[in-house]
Amino acid sequence: MKTNYQQPIGKKSLTVTAFALFSLFFGAGNLVLPPLLGFKSGNLWWLVALGFCISGALVPILGIVAHSKLQGTLFDFAKKVSPTFSVVYCYLIYAISIALPSPRTASVTHEMAIQPFWDSSSLLTSLIYFMLVFVFAVNRTKVLDALGKILTPGILIILLVIIMTTIFTLDFDFAPSHMSQPFSSGILEGYQTFDAIGAVVVGAVIIISVNIKEKSASYEEKRKLIGKAGLWAGAGLFLVYGGLILTGALFGNSFDNEITRTALLRGISTNTLGQTANLLLSILVSLACFTTAIGIVTGTSDFIKSRFNDSLLAYRITAFIGCVLGILIGQFNVGYIIDVAVPALMFIYPITIILIVLNFAPDRYASEKVFKWVVVTTILFSIPDFLGSIGLGKYVSPYVDWVPLGQYQMGWILPALIVFILGNLGKKS
Q1: Residues spanned by CATH 1.20.1740.10 within the chain?
Q2: Do 299 and 94 meet the contact criterion of CB atoms below 8 Å apart?
Q3: Using alpha carbons only, how large is the chain's radius of gyration in Å?
Q4: Per residue in 169-185, pLDDT tens?
Q5: Which of 45, 142, 190, 355 is the most exposed place for a label (fewest CB within 10 A)?
Q6: Tens of pLDDT, residues 374-397
């Protein structure tokens, strides 16, 4: 009797998938965030690290696991609310991606690799930077894919050496914390990684890659592979983010309190490894930023192209607009771009997190009605946080005060949870 034999997925596939996931989330722009968090948190660094890792590592990994279950695209992620809502959500996600994290890569490159060595304007840097991004986006090449496989390991090795050198050479003497709400500050700063958005946008790419490489594997085996790889990648993110926050906290007495994110990272790198290693790190970070910007521009252009009957003209116009935005916004410093991103993130991130959780949940608990009610509730209760982020907080403070967690800019969490529970209880009754 003939039997169908399926070769089990090996450890090599698990390792490759886990590293691909780690590379997907650990962008060059992300590494400038944790050290300053630790620097300001002082002796409460562990609370900040916990909050940052929840929004910067745990939620994105849940997004990948949700994708492995869904086996769809970004549109499928939100279509249970309604097709119209899903289209609007897709446009918002791509608009935010091309207008904020993409220009930020140019700003990080200028502050890390150009400003310390040459007396050049940030406008010139962003102009040359995004001219090259446009050239590579229009003329796609596999060279950058190959380069990307080298950059992440190189950056990771240098960061691990910095972390270990700091831990074993400095006394664990922390400065007092400058944060009144370290845990929630860590969660909100984790929004700036844009990793939850990355999970829903390009998570499908990982799924497609696994489907191509593991054609003979069953659906459950592929889900198990993604799940295990997600845990390994998540553990790596926890290790690096937590280590960088601890490193920043240990240098709490070594730099001026008003130091910028990029200056702190450069200072820590120089103090631990010397000027040569700092130069190498700057080069690697710049190249990694460049590949990230190209990925965002091409991804957004591909989406617009698909909405206009695969029009090549639509692709090129989108890429051009994205690069113009990059030039205009990328000339500002990293801190300014991060501040500008806050209102957009305060609105879109709660929706993204709740979509990840709902898609991750078992289908019997996440019907279309539950999707709609929970998402609408999340939007309503995240509006006060959005208004507060644009300076209109005084008009909504009477309403925020009575909402649990409202003072931490997370007033949407409990209402969304209550509606989720009530929606399922109503369905059962």
Answers
A1: 11-336
A2: yes
A3: 22
A4: 888 888 888 788 899 99
A5: 142
A6: 999 999 998 888 888 887 767 777
